[in-house]
């Protein structure tokens, strides 16, 4: 299949970013997307940062060839490690995924933030954690690196009977923040286990992407730029809205169609 140029790129180590893509597809109708999942190397959470950077660079070279208008790093781990460097290298907008710590902290009390090991040890996340602690002294945010969880979700996503509770940190928090896009698949299980509100950042990312694309449309109108031909074609063929790329493209397409596509029609 010929891949049209000029869409919006999404990147994740594997399946997690599709939860973000689904939210964005719902909120930005008429756009078309690339989903690059590097499932062969997932999970990234316990890999050395140099390896992660190398894999991400490969995906971005592909995005550049496809003339993307924006990229969503639908992965907290990659955002924590690479976003500053990528923003310095590429001129298109890059939107990151960051744990919604503020949402949890606003409620006050004990907040559990579940993240990958690589996110946990990153300077960016540690800065976010101290910033939130300073701004919301009425809450106590504790971050937990969940070493095996993303890998388990990647492996057992098609098994509805698999239980993840042994991978959850013990305690009785007032809220839980999911700091990895893989964990969003098991949001209900997390809620059931802790019996408290559970937050993720997907809605915020989708709103941010929509506003960037909206701004671009206004600027194009002002400068009388014609809409891209590729986009017109896609609007006719609505089923062509997502192009799956990367080592996990077949499995990701199947999973997306099974879990999200029907909801976004
Ligand atoms: N989904 C990713 C995240 O948000 C990565 C998980 C992993 O590969 O370890 O952090």
Question: What can you tell me about this protein's structure?
Answer:
The structure is a single chain. The chain is an alpha/beta fold and 265 residues long. It has 2 domains: 8-97 and 202-264, Rossmann fold (3-Layer(aba) Sandwich); 101-199, Rossmann fold (3-Layer(aba) Sandwich), CATH 3.40.50. It contains 11 helices and 9 strands. The protein has helices at residues 17-27, 49-65, 76-89, 101-107, 117-121, 123-135, 149-156, 187-194, 202-222, 229-236, 249-259; strands spanning 8-12, 33-37, 70-73, 94-95, 109-115, 139-145, 175-179, 198-199, 242-245. A 5-stranded parallel sheet has the order 4-3-1-2-9, with helices on both faces. A 4-stranded parallel sheet has the order 6-5-7-8. The longest helix has 21 residues, at 202-222. The radius of gyration is 18 Å and the shape is globular. The relative contact order is 0.21. Residues 12-14, 16, 42-45, 75-77, 97, 116, 119, 150, 180-182 line the site of D-glutamic acid.
Q: What is the CATH first-level class name of the largest domain?
A: Alpha Beta
Structural class: alpha/beta
What CATH architecture of the largest domain do you see? 3-Layer(aba) Sandwich
Q: Number of helix segments?
A: 11
Strand line-up in the sheet with most strands: 4-3-1-2-9
Features:
alpha/beta; Rossmann fold; 2 domains; binds D-glutamic acid
Strands, helices and their partners?
Elements: E1 8-12, H1 17-27, E2 33-37, H2 49-65, E3 70-73, H3 76-89, E4 94-95, H4 101-107, E5 109-115, H5 117-121, H6 123-135, E6 139-145, H7 149-156, E7 175-179, H8 187-194, E8 198-199, H9 202-222, H10 229-236, E9 242-245, H11 249-259
Parallel strand pairs: 1-2, 1-3, 2-9, 3-4, 5-6, 5-7, 7-8
D-glutamic acid (DGL) binds at residues 12-14, 16, 42-45, 75-77, 97, 116, 119, 150, 180-182.
